[in-house]
Amino acid sequence: MTEDLNSIKLYTAADIIEAQILQKLLASEGITTTLKNENLQTGVGELPFVEMWPELWLLHLRDLDRARQLLNEFFNRNTASDWVCTICNERNPGSFDICWACTETSTDDEDNLTA
Ligand SMILES: [Zn+2]
Fold first, then answer.
1. Mean pLDDT for all residues in the chain
2. pLDDT at residue 2, as a whole number
3. DSSP secondary structure of 51-87
4. Which of 23, 27, 48, 113 is 20 to 30 A from 16, comparing alpha carbons?
5. DSSP secondary-structure letter at 37?
6. Quick check: 4 pLDDT over 80?
7. Same-domain pairing of 17 and 45
8. What's the structural domain count of the chain?
9. pTM surpassing 0.70?
């Protein structure tokens, strides 16, 4: 048995922002993940793109079902409209439940402000 068998690649993100959002989302549910390749995007031009996609790895196999469920819920919300964080004023895609910049959660009040 090696350590690699204890961690599971959960998701390959399109960019580091998405990866960090997902990591925070899972962390908010008590699920520990680690990001791989998160620092490689600064080396654009030197590495093949496919090698640079951030990967979200699950540390504990027991969290796998719950983590996959959370990811499904996350991506099923993609039809929601964008919202602007009232704390830091960053715009977030509707699929994001928490602000990518400061991790504040979205509320209905913010939808009214941006309408
Ligand atoms: Zn924010």
1. 79
2. 44
3. HHS-EEEES-GGGHHHHHHHHHHHHHTTTSPPEE-TT
4. 113
5. S
6. no
7. yes
8. 2
9. no
Query: How many whole angstroms from 63 Cα to the centroid of ligand 1?
Result: 27
CA 102 / ligand 1 centre spacing (Å): 4
How far, in Å, is the centroid of ligand 1 from the Cα of 6? 34
Quick one: average pLDDT of 80-109?
Answer: 81
Query: Ligand 1 center to residue 31 CA distance, Å?
Result: 22
Range of the domain at 92: 80-115
Tell me the CA–centroid distance for residue 60 and ligand 1, in Å: 29
- In this predicted model, what pLDDT tens digit does every residue of 21-65 receive, in sequence order? 999 999 999 999 999 887 655 555 555 554 578 899 999 999 999
Q: 53 and 92 share a domain?
A: no
44 alpha carbon to ligand 1 midpoint, in Å?
A: 27
Residue 17 CA to ligand 1 centre (angstroms): 13
Ligand 1 center from residue 110 Cα (angstroms) = 12
Token digits of residue 28 = 């908010």
Secondary structure of 8-36 as H, E, C letters:
EEEEECCCHHHHHHHHHHHHHCCCCEEEE
